[in-house]
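Much of what follows relies on a compact textual record of a protein's fold. Here is one such record, which you should read through line by line:
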Amino acid sequence: MELLRFFTAGNVDDGKSTLIGRLLYDSKSISTDILETLTKQSKSTGVDADIDLALLTDGLRAEREQGITIDVAYKYFTTDKRKFIIADTPGHVQYTRNMFTGASNTDLAIVLVDARHGITEQTRRHSIISNIVGIPHVLVCINKMDLVNYDEEVYNQIKADYTHFAESLNLKKVSFIPTSALTGDNVVKHSENLKWYQGPSLFEFLETVEIEQDFKTQEARFQVQYVIRPQTEELHDYRGYAGSILSGSFKKGDKIAVHPVDLTTTIEKIEKFGQEVEEAHAGEPVIIHVADNIDISRGTTFVPNTTFVPNTTFVPNTISITDGNTIHTPSQSIQTEKTFEAIVCWMDNKSFQPGQKLLLQQNSFRSKAVIKEIDNKINIYNFKSEPSDGSLHLNDFCKVTIKTAETLSFDEYANNRKTGSFILINENTNNTVAAGVITS
């Protein structure tokens, strides 16, 4: 069964948590015991309705006291057609890092717009972050239509305004749905109040939207997590390389390149759940055996030999976005470099210090790293480049140049999210201080 990952974003009080609550409630995806608990807790919130649907995702005590979403809340539900993972992200500017985290590795962004207020700075900000992390599809839910008397002209004006704004971002696909999360209009069932709207309800849209980011059809990538050497009498010569296939598929007999050692070999055997298989696909945990005795350790990457280009200097084609910002067309061959460019979101309360000792973590690969240059800052409200003063503060987005001590094997994030994303860790405190996507 297909899995759709999506997240919600919008201003504070645009109704994100209520929308998710309504979606789960009306689709009968909430168990009886949780409903009973929510009914009791709703009495203390002072809402007019029998149940405060926002409480379903606002799980922290501080969130419930303030009536806002602070952390990313994940909810899971299943229909006859799909499985879903929902990330409800905060609307406050100060929680940008939380939203960036929730948006990573999702297939769809649901951006809520209050029908009374239209497109706001927060709307632009959340859409730009969706673009940075490469969300394939953006759905704009024009919410609280009940508060504008379900006026079609209000919907059409907001749709036109957002479409004009989205053109400058080169967003891949944008869709629009008018809703009222509080009353349930057009969330699961079509609304009598919105007869002028002929499209699907939110629930129907989620069940049918095309999932473009299919790691099974991408270039094959595998990264070693553990080297298994039992060294017992029974398994004296056993040497297997365990991990999950990041993208694509591998078959027994495939010729592969192993790097950063820049050597080639052949897959001799693939094991999955203790059984030997002929083929394995993206997301599956496997143990791979190779024909040759090569120096392979944790973080080593396997790719099909036909796609391997060792130590190449990649000169990408570029597409202009606005005011000097660029996005790069994806490279079809994996890169092996110690220096690369990326866009990072600084997540630490303490500002970046020049020369700060960092660790770069990309899946199971880890290396010492430094930020060599902060090339420019990205204005998160208009996506324009601004001169860098060399500083990085909480929630800042910057284009940077990073150098690692060990050779990193990667794809551009636009081509493969699994190998094109990373986090930076403070070497002294072990705190995650930034998350990034590789651009070239």
Q: What stands out?
A: Residues 59-70, 307-332 have pLDDT under 50 and may be disordered. The radius of gyration is 24 Å. The first helix runs from residue 16 to 26. Helices lie at 16-26, 32-42, 61-66, 96-103, 121-132, 152-167, 202-208, 417-420.
